[in-house]
Every structure is written in structure tokens, then in C-alpha cells.
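**Sequence with structure:**
===
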Amino acid sequence: MPTAKPENTDALEDRDPNNLNQHVQIVWDDIIGEPEGARSPECAWRLSTACFQYARNWCYTLLAVIIAPPCALCLGCGFACLAFEQIWCTAPCLRCMKIYFASIRSMIAACMAATVVPTAEAVGHLCRHIRVNLRKDAPEEKDLLVV
């Protein structure tokens, strides 16, 4: 008789779908490696691998059972406070500032259009005939002013 799988097994299997913790490699081969010429006996290597894996799994499980729920509670409260602050404080404050400073922005734009734009156009008109030619084969000229 086939057993029915829970519908959300994919959610339980892929616990890091956004690859947030790829930098945390805790697999034996990613941490320990013996180069040629410095090899322990095969029985020591296998025993060390098994000790590492069992210690890692038991310690992580123990920490996850004891410390993860309070951490999750604190993180949940912290992110809830962050979301509340962004939704009810920061976003309305920024919207008010945009409304308040819209008139100042228009005034500054008008002042710049009356002063900076004509000045820049005048300087551009004066400098429009300046030409710069760079030649690699040009002879080196001596300075006219010798001190």
C-alpha cells in the first residue's frame, strides 16, 4: 500500500531556497583535505569523518531544539517592529517631505533656469570653436617660455 506524501514536503526539503547561507559549508570534504604525502591511515580517516558528522549533527540538532525557537521569536518580533516602522513611520514621513519640498523644488528649478542655464549656454557659445587635435606623429615642440 503506497504511503501518501504530505503536500508541503518540498518546503521542508529545500530550507534555503534563496541560497542565503551558501557560505556556511559544514561538509567534511569542504573543511578537511589531506594532500598527497600527508595521509592518515584509512581507518583514522573514516573514524574522523564519522565523528565529525555525528558531532556536527547532534550538536546542531541540540542547539536548534533549545535555542532556535527563542531566536525565531526574537527575529519575528524584530522584523515585525521593522515592518511597522517602515509602514507607519518612514513611508508617511517621506511622503510628507516630498509634498512639502515640491514647491521648493519648483522654485529652485526656476531660479536655475533663469541663471545657470543662460550662463552655461553663453560659455558653451564662447567655447564652441575650440578644437583639440591629438596626433601621435606630431613633432615635440620646445617651450617658448624658458626661465
Q: What stands out?
A: Residues 10 and 17 are 10 Å apart (CA to CA). The longest helix spans residues 68-127.
